[in-house]
Amino acid sequence: ENLAVSQQTTDAVRVLNECMKPTIALVHGACFGGGTGILAACDVVIASDDALFSIAEVRWGLHAGPIIPQLAAAIGPRQVRRYAITAERFDAHTAEKLGLVHAVCGRDELSETGEAVINAILMNGPSGMAETKRILLETSGLYIDDALAGQLAESHSLQRQTDDAVEGLLSFKEKRNAAWYPG
Questions:
Q1: 63 vs 124: CA distance, rounded Å
Q2: d(Cα 20, Cα 16) in Å, to the nearest integer?
């Protein structure tokens, strides 16, 4: 059951990443953990200036394996190393500088900004866009094959069963620092 949950997470982000239809994410409020992987798998991401982000899995005693390939493609391995290891929170403007977000706007402008992107997409030929995405994924090495997806899910599943993960998830649920925190 645990492996199935990890595989579903890995597959969901993988399928979104490889979807031949345009994908757009509009973000406001907090986007932590797997949510950042979902964003990284989307074609266009627009965030309101009040959005807050974190690759937070390590805070819970886990790792971000199921979403690391998409995050690395979006913001680069160097930035993933920092944010996936520290679980630091960062704002929408930082997310834009990193490449996780394409545009930042006021919260009251989010729908309008998204509609402008949708309108631009609707003016384009569906098969041309799909072929563009296919070529990009193939030539950039962004496809995740079944073997790698299985390895990511298995590693995530095993990590979810560690004492660190049990304590980390419990501390998150109880809104307290994990026992390993010395302060």
A1: 38
A2: 9
- Give pLDDT tens digits for 83-108: 999 999 999 999 999 999 999 999 99
Crossing angle, helix 68-75 and helix 2-18, to 10 degrees? Answer: 30
pTM > 0.85: yes or no: yes
Q: Kindly write down the DSSP assignment for every residue of 84-109, as one continuous string.
A: HHH---EEHHHHHHHTS-SEEE-GGG
Q: Take residue 121 and report the two structure tokens written for it.
A: 């997409």
Report pLDDT for 183.
86
Of 9, 5, 136, the residue nearest 68 (C-alpha): 9
Residue at 117: amino acid letter: V
In the block, tokens 């298995």 appear at 154
- Among 64, 62, 56, which Cα is nearest to 31's? 56
Going by C-alpha positions, the residue among 137, 115, 133 that lies closest to residue 125 is 133
